[in-house]
User: Fold this.
Amino acid sequence: IESESAEAVLDKLEGLHPTDIAELMDELSMDEAKYLYLLLDPERASDVLVEIPENERRRFLRVLPPELIARQFIEYMDSDDAADVVGDLEDDMKEAVLQEMKDKEQAGDIADLLEYDEDSAGGLMAKELIKVNENWTVQTSLKEISAQAEHIDEIYYVYVVDDGGFLKGILSLTKLILNPTNSKIKTLLEDDLHYVKTDATQEEVAQLMERFDLVAIPVVDHIGRLKGRITIDDVVDVIREEAEKDYQMVSGITGDVESGDRVWNLTRARLPWLLIGLLGGILGARVLGANESALAQIQGIAFFIPLIAAMAGNVGVQSSSIVVQTIASGARDFDSIGKKLLKELAVGLITALVFSSLIFVYNFTFGDSLKLTWAVSISLFIVIVFASLFGTTIPLVLNKLKIDPALATGPFITTTNDILGLIMYMMVAKTFFDIV
Amino acid sequence: IESESAEAVLDKLEGLHPTDIAELMDELSMDEAKYLYLLLDPERASDVLVEIPENERRRFLRVLPPELIARQFIEYMDSDDAADVVGDLEDDMKEAVLQEMKDKEQAGDIADLLEYDEDSAGGLMAKELIKVNENWTVQTSLKEISAQAEHIDEIYYVYVVDDGGFLKGILSLTKLILNPTNSKIKTLLEDDLHYVKTDATQEEVAQLMERFDLVAIPVVDHIGRLKGRITIDDVVDVIREEAEKDYQMVSGITGDVESGDRVWNLTRARLPWLLIGLLGGILGARVLGANESALAQIQGIAFFIPLIAAMAGNVGVQSSSIVVQTIASGARDFDSIGKKLLKELAVGLITALVFSSLIFVYNFTFGDSLKLTWAVSISLFIVIVFASLFGTTIPLVLNKLKIDPALATGPFITTTNDILGLIMYMMVAKTFFDIV
Assistant:
């Protein structure tokens, strides 16, 4: 890249979307990336900056002076993106950047947004919105909207407030166009609207917008004053992130990694859960070590260790995933916890019956020892029922405790069930063969 | 519910959203559900019908006469929802319903939509849209928009076509309002726009809209004539579905189940992958059975079976999930397949080194046999490297073959890696202890 002239590089970037350029930046060295940024016009450079991953951005901004950050990047961003970027900076850098901004109103908006928790509705919202007073006429409103619309890419709804700034309703542009110019806004507004409070969680916002197919939702403070709006594109990102988080959890990856990432990032994302797997394996070895005499005396008992462990793990992951997915979808659930567990018990019993019968038939046909055949089937039965209930209970309990229930999927539940399964298998087998 | 009067029931349903009512319906018997439907006014009843799961809907519609379906439900729906519902009916029922419709234009639209594959852009789009001719003035356009807007809930963009119906550009309402009434549309339109062809897959549509933060996207046929539009709310559903599908795959569940579902559905969704787990367990038992002499002669060798199997499974799931997630995110990937595998090899080698060293230290400290200590560590090393490469390769190959790469996550990869891990462990151990 470096060998080409500035024009040639710019030419190549011309057709690319900011997201693509951001991904490309990720592959470059710091100096190359910096060079590229300064080549781009500020509008585009800020779009790219919004798209690059947080830690990369932080590293990059650390080497730039606050004036440059303020005037080259922040001033070209919408308030919500600007707040995200500024929020990532160190405290004194934050202040310096905000002070360097020429647009004092936007600096104020960003400072306001920084007050909110990043994962709340307040942290997601943008200050840019179109609002009209309920006492205005259509004509006045249209004029005001033209003035306000300069700073806004796209208008989805016009929000209606009273003199005190309290949200009274919404109005679609369609309605404004279709009504006589002297109608009062008050008579046109839709007051049966959805809104969220600034401290709603981003999951709540996403569920509400998804459920009611909203494109934008207004955000109000505790007494109902209009503070900002959240648009669907930010919510799509939230939905995607939430889904990815749950997916990563169940597959035992920490953090958002893709195969394009550096080797070290890829490795680091995998070590924590593998460590749990290793500890589980060591515990499993201890369980088996404690049953050394059974292993030595019962011929063939070791053969079914992988089967019991795998079934326990799989059943546990299935049960916990169903619970996690149900919670994540935010669907109203008419079942009580008791009913859920009873159902899961039924599912567990059926599943257990099916698979312990299958393995019974297999062992009865091909095995040598009837005692072992019984021991394996009975253990498998107990293990499956137990793993179902355990896999259902743990995420429900975590959710009650306000801990992310997805923690109880994947390697954690597999490992726990592996060990518990082994313990049960050994106990049942020893009972059958009268070994103490 | 049945014991209360119609008014009391309606009162209770008043505040609920169609999605909630749909979930409630799911809990009721057929007769109760039918009774409820006929209580609701048609507009609301159709909203509810759109929200209930496909198989429930099919069962329910089978008992109704075509006139009722046409006039009570279909005529109140947007063309895209109507096409989904009608598309689910049996062929002769489809025709009957379309013929019973009074609104012949809508019947025609639905018939058009039924031509497209359900998972394509054509299957996702709605026919309802606002379009203006490029030769009109702002004033004419506003008048036309008012007329067209009657059938449409919300306008996001106005599409501009030429006399032949070819898509020329888009126009935001904002722009229409802010410009003089005698301006020609031609001079105002934005012609650098995103669009999809009718045969684009729904994943492509979702990725495009997500990437460029679009609220609606126009759909054109192969020669560029405007055919319909897709709105973000349908795409949010696609994104959610795709994410759920991958999640279910990695957790070993087939089909879209939630803990609120019936016991039989919950059980059925879990049996297929557990069956694979069982077969894997039996194969594992065979592998161990074939190594009976090694198991009998090497004291303690059985203790580490769960450890080797668990690590192989976990590493494999992690590797395959990272690949699947990268493919699903649709991010441009600048790495070639060769580079990916080299990286994965590096990740595998580091991970393998870390964990085989850890287990070496553990066994060296607490174990009795130095030979077994070496055998376990070396096996674990080989197994981890192999599982990384295997977990990365399989989904890449499936993707090349146009098979959903997510198939290679979860129980499939765990089970395969379990067995291969056991084979390697036995081979290494026998080499160390000189057993043939």
Residues 370-400 of chain B form the longest helix (31 residues).
